[in-house]
Amino acid sequence: MAVRYAVTLHKGGVGKTTTSVNLSGVLAERGHRVLIIDCDSQGDLSSVFLDAHEQLPHTVADIFADTGMLTEDLIRPTAFPNIFVIPADRRLEQFEQTHNFKQEDLTRCLTDAIAEVEHRFDYVILDTATRPHLTGYAALVACDVAVIPLEAARFSFRSVQSIRSYVELENDARSLNPAMAIRYFLSKSKKNKVHDACREALTDILGPQALLRTEIPDSSAINTALHLRKPLVVHSKKSKPSEAYRTLINELQEVTRGQANHANPAAA
């Protein structure tokens, strides 16, 4: 069974797509087969890995529209070994409703779609949009771990209520996905007094277990790699941020191992 990460937060500019791209790069580097599902109608992740994704006849929108397409037929190879994508396009906009989405029958559609193909993959990464709506909620319902990047900057203090509201949304998703874990990490990190105060405040809000130790340093190499449409570990294999993403994967794997041991104590 594939491990499933949903990279998510209902705030723009924190690096969700960047995180999805770079986590997939680290996992592929280690020989794991990775399926990335773009759950954002803007298709930013799709544009990193695919040319002219808006012109493709079938995308993740077919899953939400229940067109009868097999998940297998939606998967596209990329230029990078072990990385595959189910792209998004503007047709997904019709499912980005912001009200009453928790009651929709479609909340489990990504769970069912992944179940069709997860025997082919070691990991599934779901990249979500910036607003709370059906497609992102379905990603939470489908995941093992919700992975949430937070920028270590002053705005994090102003976003405390937003973060708390998001935790509430994730807790709602647990009614359909009770085993889901929630983990946060600091992105675009700069070591200074503001950063230290921010981390301390977030630890108090989220709890020491929820906030991962790994921090992704602020680096132009990350943006350059994304501009070149490459995972960072392909563009700059030995850079400090590449090492940070590898460490982040190690921490996330610790979480999923803990989930497996909890579900099967005899295997621990």
TrEMBL record:
Pfam families: AAA_31. Residues 6-173 form the AAA domain. InterPro entries: AAA_dom, DNA_Partitioning_ATPase, P-loop_NTPase. PANTHER family: P-LOOP CONTAINING NUCLEOSIDE TRIPHOSPHATE HYDROLASE, PARA FAMILY PROTEIN CT_582. This is Chromosome (Plasmid) partitioning protein ParA. It comes from Fimbriiglobus ruber.
